[in-house]
């Protein structure tokens, strides 16, 4: 035998459920067929949107692996014009980044150094130099630039991340070099 409170509780749940069913049936019967079709289309659009959103969320990993687009020559020319018009830390840094994105790291180093002449204590320019020198496999210069960036802004996560990346690349280059020189 069940406890009397449990029996009353189950009975109450059954009544609520039956009321819900009755109100749902009444609502559906009062709608015209056109309204039902409109509701169905809206529901279908919501489902499609949810699926598209979930696909986008699933592609985040793929998007993260995609390389950034290389800047166009038009963007480079515009940045060069800005540097000529108003040379500053920002304009040289921007042009250096564009060159780096194109894989022209020697030109990037030249731009960063021009900016360093204007603003020698720039964390941005030093981190840019660190990355460009690392790509050129000039690890001593890269390390010096990274350390200077960290000295300028000790709390910068970017400078520390770049420094660690440079050390990793240096180690990989040394391991590759020693593997080639070691006889098998």
Note down, in words, how this protein is organized.
With 184 residues, this protein is an all-alpha fold. The protein has a domain at 73-157: Tetratricopeptide repeat domain (Serine Threonine Protein Phosphatase 5, Tetratricopeptide repeat, Alpha Horseshoe), CATH 1.25.40. Helix content is 83%, strand content 0%. The protein contains nine helices and no strands. It has helices at 4-30, 33-58, 60-65, 73-85, 89-102, 105-118, 123-135, 139-152, 157-181. Helix 5 (89-102) runs antiparallel to helix 6 (105-118), helix 6 runs antiparallel to helix 7 (123-135) and helix 7 (123-135) runs antiparallel to helix 8. The longest helix has 27 residues, at 4-30. The chain starts with a helix and ends with a helix. The model has no long low-confidence stretch (mean pLDDT 80).
The number of helical runs is 9
CATH architecture of the domain at 73-157: Alpha Horseshoe
What sequence of helices (H) and strands (E) makes up the elements?
HHHHHHHHH
Q: Between the first and last Cα atoms, what is the distance in angstroms?
A: 84 Å
- Principal-axis shape equals elongated
The structure class reads mainly alpha
Let me know the number of strands: 0
Please name the CATH topology of the domain at 73-157: Serine Threonine Protein Phosphatase 5, Tetratricopeptide repeat
As residue ranges, the low-confidence spans are none
**The CATH homology group name of the domain at 73-157:** Tetratricopeptide repeat domain
Q: Which features would summarize this protein structure in a list?
A:
single chain, 184 residues, mainly alpha, Serine Threonine Protein Phosphatase 5, Tetratricopeptide repeat
